């Protein structure tokens, strides 16, 4: 519909943005077509989106963080390496006792800001509840023995939870592969996530050298795993990976 102009009166000027005529659904007086709908602003005090999955019911159910886009905040990188991280290290209350093991490591915090981290709990993802009975690999045999069917994961009462641990390990590998992960930082001594030591299977607090089921599977597929006490070491590996991925473009993310 056109705009009628009364004789002797000036034609209306183009409506300023935000005027009634420029509102969504109204014909624009100059261009003669509908202006696009406005994107509603976030209400003051409304929560912003945090890390995907953080505090969500979906995370508690699956142990997965959902979609956490790789944001190249800060330096421009040839390739942004993503890092799989034990969810309990990032403050998620997913441990067997319902607690978290939050890491206050500065490097981990910086990576989190950069959007590199993929929080993941293999045991929750494998179908185990929170809280749940503590479990250990029998005889402290290590994750590789569980993957090979040579050892089970048992609770103190003798319940066999091997299937859930294997399912969680494969889900972790799938999540890592989906994001091209080549590096993981996992909670030390866990029957899933341990990388240097695991409990000895006697439920008395004893530890033996070895790794957890998820760690063993990730290692078999070429993913480097570091415990929470070796994050600086993981940082060096990260630099190597990013330099190799972008030769001649020497930009250090850390
Ligand atoms: S150590 Fe691994 S399996 Fe255990 S609660 Fe943390 S993320 Fe989950």
Automatic annotation (TrEMBL):
Q: Output compositional bias ranges, type Basic residues.
A: 23-36
One matching Pfam family is 2-thiour_desulf
Stated name of the protein:
DUF523 domain-containing protein
| InterPro entries tied to this protein | 2-thiour_desulf
Q: Where is this region: Disordered?
A: 1-74
Organism listed in the record: Streptosporangium pseudovulgare
Ranges annotated as biased composition (Low complexity): 1-22, 40-58
């Amino acid at each position: 519909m056109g705009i009628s102009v009364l004789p002797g009166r000036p034609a209306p000027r183009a409506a300023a943005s935000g005027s009634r005529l420029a509102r969504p659904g109204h014909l624009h007086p100059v261009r003669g077509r509908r202006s696009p709908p406005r994107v509603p602003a976030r209400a003051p005090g409304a929560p912003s989106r945090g890390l995907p999955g953080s505090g969500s019911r979906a995370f508690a159910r699956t142990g997965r963080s959902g979609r956490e886009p790789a944001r190249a905040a800060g330096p421009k990188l040839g390739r942004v390496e993503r890092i799989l991280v034990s969810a309990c290290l990032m403050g998620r209350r997913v441990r067997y006792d319902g607690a978290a093991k939050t890491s206050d490591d500065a490097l981990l915090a910086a990576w989190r800001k950069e959007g590199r981290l993929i929080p993941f709990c293999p045991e929750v993802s494998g179908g185990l509840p929170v809280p749940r009975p503590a479990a250990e690999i029998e005889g402290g045999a290590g994750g590789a023995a569980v993957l090979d069917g040579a050892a089970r994961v048992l609770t103190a009462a003798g319940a066999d939870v091997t299937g859930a641990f294997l399912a969680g390990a494969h889900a972790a590998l799938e999540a890592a592969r989906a994001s091209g992960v080549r590096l993981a930082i996992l909670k030390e001594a866990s029957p899933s996530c341990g990388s240097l030591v695991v409990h000895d299977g006697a439920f008395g607090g004893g530890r033996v050298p070895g790794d957890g089921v998820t760690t063993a599977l990730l290692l078999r597929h070429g993913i480097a795993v570091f415990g929470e006490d070796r994050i600086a070491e993981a940082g060096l590996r990260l630099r190597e990976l990013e330099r190799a991925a972008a030769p001649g473009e020497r930009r250090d993310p850390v």
